[in-house]
């Protein structure tokens, strides 16, 4: 037997009333996928007020910060509202955690197994993640599959500017686990949590089924794949850039033989003085032609473009294309 594991960030879709099933009648109508006859089977693990959590975590830091400010316009009256109005920082984070899919839960006893796994995983969540302050956690058993909505506030500390403690997901998880990849802290953190869920499956003789983004065996394989994709994207960008350069240069190269019409032939004038009378003036062609400055500028542009095209052609000829 095998089951998939999913841990997805759903911060932009957070709806605590939906999570806690305190929706209005109109909202319930819009959520027809919920089987209300089974809503009493949902497991509510944590239900705290988010504003109160902010006061607990940031109240003292806010007081200390404001006490240092000499200008009133630099003071922050309410850190909750301050973050709520921020365009850069999320007020909280939500994860949707699930094992298996709808085909894995045909019977109620299967739901119980899914609940066991989620409960065991969550039991030590805050111990593993002391910087992620959980304020809401619930397991839904009234939908197609049992899954958990986990909401928390990531708290980081040690700031020199602003409050000493602030909301920051990446910094919070790096501070609690310095071994995380600093370039992809969330991906690394997520993979570790997914591996713990996988262990819960294995304890029950269930293998992890790899699907979607979970088809990578570990975070390193995922990173290698992403690095390769990023490298390809960079190369494609360079190819497009060179293509545009080539097209721009090619516009200056004429499609047919260039014919420059000279303004006139160059005439050399020689004045021969005489002992008596006017000097003699001799004119003869030098074999050269006279062109206007505009014609010379046109010729220079064409020659420069032709040289660039020739160099690119020679460079491509020297390469070993891989087919």
Descriptive labels:
323 residues; alpha+beta; BirA Bifunctional Protein, domain 2; 2 domains; 10 helices
Structure in words:
- The strands form 2 sheets. Strands 1, 2, 3, 4, 5, 6 and 7 form a 7-stranded mixed sheet that branches.
- By secondary structure, this protein is of the alpha+beta class.
- Helix content is 43%, strand content 20%.
Query: Main β-sheet: number of strands, strand sense, barrel status?
Result: 7 strands, mixed
In total, the number of strands is: 9
**Helix and strand string, N-terminal first?**
EHHEHHEHHEEEHHEHEEH
Mean pLDDT across all amino acids: 83
What shape does the CA trace take?
Answer: elongated
Task: Calculate the terminal CA-CA distance, rounded to whole Å.
Answer: 42 Å
CATH topology of the largest domain: BirA Bifunctional Protein, domain 2
Q: From the 3D coordinates, which CATH architecture of the largest domain would you assign? A: 2-Layer Sandwich
Structural class: alpha+beta
Helix content, binned percent: 40-55%
Name of the CATH first level of the largest domain = Alpha Beta
Total helical elements: 10
Q: Beta-strand percentage?
A: 15-25%
Which parts are unreliable, with pLDDT below 50 for 5 consecutive residues or more? 214-222
Computed Rg: 37 Å
The number of domains is 2
């Amino acid at each position: 037997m095998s089951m998939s594991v999913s841990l997805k960030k759903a911060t932009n879709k957070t709806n605590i009333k939906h999570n806690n099933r305190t929706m209005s009648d109109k909202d319930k109508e819009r959520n027809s996928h919920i089987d209300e006859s089974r809503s009493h089977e949902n497991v509510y693990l944590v239900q705290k007020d988010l504003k109160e959590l902010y006061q607990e975590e940031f109240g003292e830091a806010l007081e200390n910060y404001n006490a240092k400010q000499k200008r009133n316009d630099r003071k922050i009256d309410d850190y909750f509202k301050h973050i709520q109005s921020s365009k850069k920082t999320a007020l909280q984070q939500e994860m949707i955690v699930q094992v298996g899919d709808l085909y894995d839960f045909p019977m109620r006893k299967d739901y119980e197994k899914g609940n066991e796994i989620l409960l065991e995983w969550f039991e030590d969540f805050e111990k593993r993640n002391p910087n992620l302050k959980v304020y809401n956690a619930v397991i839904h058993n009234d939908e197609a599959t049992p899954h958990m909505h986990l909401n928390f506030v990531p708290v980081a500390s040690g700031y020199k500017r602003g409050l000493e403690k602030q909301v920051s997901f990446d910094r919070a998880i790096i501070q609690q686990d310095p071994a995380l990849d600093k370039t992809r802290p969330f991906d690394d953190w997520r993979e570790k949590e997914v591996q713990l869920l996988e262990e819960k499956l294995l304890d029950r003789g269930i293998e992890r089924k790899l699907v979607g983004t979970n088809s990578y065996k570990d975070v390193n394989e995922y990173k290698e794949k992403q690095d390769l994709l990023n490298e390809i994207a960079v190369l494609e960008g360079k190819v497009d850039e060179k293509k545009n350069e080539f097209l721009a240069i090619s516009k200056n190269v004429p499609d047919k033989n260039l014919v420059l019409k000279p303004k006139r032939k160059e005439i050399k004038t020689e004045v021969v003085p005489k002992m008596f009378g006017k000097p003699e003036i001799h004119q003869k062609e030098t074999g050269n032609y006279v062109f206007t400055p505009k014609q010379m500028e046109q010729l220079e542009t064409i020659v420069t473009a032709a040289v660039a095209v020739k160099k690119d052609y020679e460079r491509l000829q020297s390469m070993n294309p891989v087919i």
